[in-house]
Amino acid sequence: MRRERLGRRGRRLAFPFFLTALLTACVNVLLGAGAGAQSRGSTEILINIPAFKLYLYRDGVPVKTYPIGVGQVVKPSLLGETTIINKVAHPTYYPPDWYTRGLQPIPPGPDNPVGTRWLGLGFPGYGIHGTNDPSSIGTPASSGCIRMYNHDVEELAELVSVGTVVRFIYETIQAWRDPVTGNALILVHPDIYRQGTNNYQAALDRLERIGAAGGVDPWTLQAILGEAAAEPRPVPLSVPLTLDGERLPVNAVRYGGQLLLPLDPLAERLGLTVARSPRPEAGEVAVGGVVVPGSFRIGVRAFAPVASAAEGLGLAVAGASPEGVALGSVRVVDRSGSEILLRAHVLGDWLLLPVQET
Fold first, then answer.
1. Annotated catalytic residue 151
2. Whole-Å CA distances, 342 to 17, 90, 255, 330, 355
3. Which pLDDT score is estimated for 26?
4. Is 26 part of the annotated catalytic residue set?
5. Residue 23 and residue 33 in contact, taking contact as beta carbons nearer than 8 Å
6. Of these residues, 26, 129, 189, 345, which one is catalytic?
7. One of 26, 90, 145, 189 is an active-site residue; which one?
8. What are the angstrom distances between the C-alpha of 327 and each of 251, 292, 306?
9. Global pTM?
């Protein structure tokens, strides 16, 4: 959306587009990312830009969450603290430089770009408002203002007043413990303004705050950061991995109650390739042309449960527990003891060998 303007007398409002420094005190959103919103015995709004979320707090407790649209990469939403300075129902929209360009204000109605409500902010020219383009919610599409669904901003307008504090933060990594199981979870939002926030050290810092940084598997955590799926992921834990008695530089991974093997480095070691499965709709991958059941990708990296991964790689599982995974190569020899270069597979109690007509 082009620069949002509001004014009943058509006065021009300036739009400074710049990013301020990130807030050092961040809100406890999504069950515990960062420090909690400070209670001032009043209603507050917190907006996490990369999460596309607006949180309404009352006495320091989150009571409402709304999806939002935010500023474009080239016209980002501001960061920092401000307040609501006015509230307008069914506002008139004034296009940028409308008078000098010979344009007409857009009256209230279905074509109004700021929808049915305007909550003006102390940042000059910025506001929280509705929209005539609901498909833009959840995207960086505005000129810095915060867009909401009309029904959401109408509800919000009834819950806040002039003077309500509004804080804008930029938190791409959130970490917390499940309140029932105690398991550590991490959620990574896309770094939409390219601030470099989705880095390994930042993730470790978040995990350290909840006491979950110990034993984290770096390779898999990097995959989660690269994926930036904006969905909760189990915090991956390293499990020692050996092949033919040799400790490998990569680890097996304890991930959400499963033991997984990283397919890419193991396949590379064995001279195999990891590729898209012939059934991409299943989300599985193929190793050396063999589909690995239960395999999946985190970002660009492939993983699979130990048994099916070993099968796809042509390896035997000598042992698998949270304390360690031991794999063994399957070698085929003839009667003289010479090795036959065949790719064998162990499937349960079966040893599978390729056959070829001669």
1. no
2. 63, 74, 33, 9, 10
3. 32
4. no
5. no
6. 129
7. 145
8. 12, 16, 9
9. 0.79
